Amino acid sequence: xxxxxxxxxxxxxPLAVVVAVSTLLVRRRRGTPPExxxxxxxxxxxxxxxVERPTTEAPAGADPVSTAxxxxxxxxxxxxxxxxxxxxxxxxxxxxxxxRLRGRLARSGSPLGARLLAVLSRDHLTEDDWxxxxxxLLLADVGAGPSAxxxxxxxxxxxxxxxxxxGQVRALLREQLVALVDPxxxxxxxxxxxxxxxxxxxxxxxxVVGVNGTGKTTTVGKLARVLxxxxxxxxxxxxxxxxxxxxxxxxTWGSRVGVPTVRSDRDGADxxxxxxxxxxxxxxxxxxxxxxxxxxxxxxxxxxxxxxxxITRVITREAPLSEVLLVLDATTGQNGLNQAKVFGEVAGVxxxxxxxxxxTAKGGIVxxxxxxLGVPVKLVGLGEGPDDLAPFDxxxxxxxxxxx
Length: 404
Known about the structure:
Elements: H1 2-10, H2 15-30, E1 39-42, E2 48-51, E3 70-73, E4 77-80, H3 97-107, H4 112-120, H5 127-139, H6 144-161, H7 166-181, E5 194-195, E6 201-202, E7 204-209, H8 216-229, E8 234-239, H9 246-256, E9 261-263, H10 271-285, E10 289-294, H11 301-315, E11 321-329, H12 334-347, E12 351-355, H13 365-373, E13 377-381, E14 389-391, H14 394-402
Parallel strand pairs: 7-10, 7-11, 8-9, 8-10, 11-12, 12-13
Antiparallel strand pairs: 1-2, 2-9, 3-4, 5-6, 13-14
């Protein structure tokens, strides 16, 4: 065996591969059977539900390896293809996520809260000061109507109560901002098993929509982690079949936390067929939630309506839709509101996911998009980490802005 390894090293084979060869030879001498190859369970309609291969412990002191189809190395030695097993990750607990992300929002240097407090703390507020406050709110994408409401409420309170103490000013501003964000809206996610029209128990089905570039597929992967952290069982549906890397990206997210992905084996497949297969697979596996990622094209309203309408009709043959979440990029401002309006009209949006909210003065988009669609912001992303997605809490969000 040593001679074989010396030959491999002399031939320029990387050391890691040589170690793997040594491990395999030791295993064969000891009679250790090879690991089974990865398997794919065929889902209805031709999509494939990816099933992760179980890993085994390698001998002490050796690199972990697993075996698949044999390949030739150097023309004279056959070994199994080397695949590094990926250990399942444990997502961060959901409680406390927004508190952690709030600190990140405060550290991002968003000037909204600082500017508002600076103006309100002046001894005598002139008309120019009030105009400056309104301009600050408009630049933060709060919107003309909500900005005017906030300014009017602040002027009344300052005039009536004669607020001047910095602590009182901050408390007053916080109160008005929280009211504007509206804590009365129902921000819960429908992610528990439900019943269909026939009274049969089925998974909750969550359809995720949005244009490309908003972080939609990444958000689906992060949402899967949120659900796993809450003890939910999940199946992912890669119904974005027009972007070649979307299914691979989603499958990678799922594999990290042991969540299977239903996908087509070819690009450009019918998205509705993949969505249908995902829901049926979820029903058969009796999971809690099926998350369906969709294509992010917004070429024209008619095309979008046709595609999303077909996906919705096909899905509801198997189970009712529990949520339609629209993913928006917080940095797009008013353009994001236009996107939200189109999707709201087409897809029956039930909640908003705001991504890229860190490092921006556009926090007011929370207020504007809720007013535009009449639906709540339910989740926010404040970073690029895998667990930087959290349920939205109005009070903690406002505190993050004011601490900036």
